[in-house]
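WARN  no MSA supplied for this record, continuing single-sequence
INFO  ligand: nicotinamide-adenine-dinucleotide
INFO  echoing inputs
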Amino acid sequence: MSLMDSPLYRDAVAQLEKSASIMGLDPNIMERLKYPKRALQVAVPIRLDDGTVKTFQGYRVQHNMTLGPGKGGIRFHPKVDLSETAGLAMLMTFKCALVGLPLGGAKGGISVDPTTLSRQELQGLTRRYTTEINMMVGPTIDVPAPDIGTDGQTMAWFMDTYSQLKGYTVPGVVTGKPITVGGSLGRAEATGKGVAFCVNFAAKKMGMKIGKSTTVAIHGFGKVAIPAAQDLRDQGAKIVAISDVSGAVYNKDGIDVAKAIEWTRSGKHLKDMDGIEKITNDQLLTLDVDILIPAAIDGVITKDNAPNVKAKMIAEGANGPLTKEAIEILSEKGAFIIPDILCNAGGVIVSYFEWVQGLQNFFWDLGQINSKLHDILRDAFDNVYEASQEYKVDMKKAAFIAAFRRLERAMRYRGLFPG
Ligand code: NAD
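INFO  complex generated
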């Protein structure tokens, strides 16, 4: 597969072209944004526990670095390929630009099912991958983070390997590290907290007051969904439905969120929770609620079920939970959609804070982190909302327009080397 040949890459370019034509983006800027700046494919051979050697394919792609060093996760998943990685890198360029970070867009990954490897094999894989892409990363060059199939432990191995190669500790080379090796307070909850902030900004625009009469359904109950549920519950909202891969649970008077968290964290499925009504994931998506937060996987609301979605506000906690057609249908119906590149940007914002803290070796308290996260998201939300009013487009297109405006200005100022 060529660099720009996957459905995800083509979809990212289509979104770029659509919003660019609405706002009249400079065609010369558009021409540059369509192509990733740099892509690397590496062989990652490791010795398995049985003594044999197996080679995996790894990638790192930097899409655009006008605003600063590359930023984007490392994904360990069997479906990872060069072009999907390039498409995800492009979306990171737009996300970082949208929320005003001094960072560009990048992404990386290895085509591997990490659940089939032992801890030792995973460590070997991560360390060899780090060595192979070493020339492309660094605190001032490109700063990876966890993504699907990777976590804080992966980042700790990455940081350690990079530091071994340098001869000194370099905490700023990756984010999403455990706190004891330079991670940031608030990073783990940042995405979900950001979702809850965005829900509040949207409610204000809609004249909706978040309180005990507000009903919320959340699709998924993982790293993004749980902190969002906790924050909205703490504001008094009723979380009437939540779900996981096994199914959904429903209580019209509000689910006991703390009990559900304990249940989930003990490794149990929600479908097995006792004393609560069970519904399907599909039923959850079409409940008559004020706020729907799809925070599990992509493509769950399509042209088929969108006409039945009743929520007044839909906050895209996951990446791409609404298809293009679903966004059109729901926007027509008057639903307020908070687009993913804004709604789930809390994670990359606190990753940015972690990078800054790592560079200066001075760490902030949680209050500072959450208040800065709030202010950055509020400004980004206002920019998107203004763009949606100015161009009379849905918030999804407006988010791209707001991102392109910033990129266009920066790319014009910096110009085209060598001229
Ligand atoms: P997670 O693995 O912690 O949680 C996912 C949840 O979705 C789980 O409850 C799982 O059971 C459920 N789920 C999985 N497949 C499902 C299905 N087919 N139907 C219904 N539920 C299903 O993942 P996460 O980190 O919370 O990520 C969720 C989404 O948010 C993904 O799209 C991810 O790319 C996106 N996202 C995550 C972050 C982050 O910081 N974690 C940042 C930005 C975007």
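The chain has two domains: 7-181, 190-338.
INFO  checksum written, moving to next record
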